[in-house]
Amino acid sequence: MDDYLTDNLLGSDDALGGAARAAADAGLPDIAVSAPQGRFLTLLAGMVGARSILEVGTLGGYSAICLARALPPDGTLITLEADPRFADVARGNVDRAGVGDRVDIRVGTALDTLPTLHDDAPFDLVFLDADKANNAAYFRWALELGRPGTVIVVDNVVRSGAIADTASDDPGVRGTQHMFELMATDPRVDATALQTVAGKGYDGFALALVTG
Ligand code: SAM
């Protein structure tokens, strides 16, 4: 079905196809968002009218390209990546995709980089897609670096249903469960989560709107 939607709804996309191939050739793990999910990110950033986007978890730059495409020429996407080798691949990919002028890749552990971003805030949209154990901390930073109206998107919040296992001791599951607790109880956000079935399995996105 993902292939059908990609072929019949999205159409061919040389830049994203090339980015996926370059990432695979460089040996990066196949854990980027799918093509339809990437288009969802492009549409969402466009709907929000985002001029300033923060992404946590760059990998090879696939979702960064999708998000940056929605930006106006003077817009910026700051994307955080711990692995310098992945960041190098992403740099080449965003440049070849023609959005390099809008994409700022910061290499380092996200929890070290996030406190340096106050001067770049507020962000209109934040996409959290790095190590899931730190999802609650990343969500707190998204609030800190956002404003009323900021949209926060979090990937992999279902993980084939593993997140519903309240007895789990998997740090990634615990981190996402903790993030959901914060989303549910923080009076400054309205949030939901949507389950997805796609070529890369059964998973889902959380969506939060900062309201106050
Ligand atoms: N958003 C990417 C996409 O869809 O194209 C996929 C990101 S991948 C799921 C997660 C990325 O987060 C990996 O590249 C990994 O190296 C990075 N990462 C993991 N822990 C991190 C950390 N503590 N700080 C920054 N990046 C981290």
UniProtKB/TrEMBL annotation:
Keyword set, alphabetical order: Methyltransferase, S-adenosyl-L-methionine, Transferase
Pfam families for the chain: Methyltransf_3
Cited PROSITE patterns: SAM_OMT_I
UniProt keyword Metal-binding, yes or no: no
SUPFAM superfamilies: S-adenosyl-L-methionine-dependent methyltransferases
UniProt keyword Mitochondrion present: no
Domain of life: Bacteria
The name this protein goes by in its record: O-methyltransferase
Taxonomic source organism: Prauserella alba
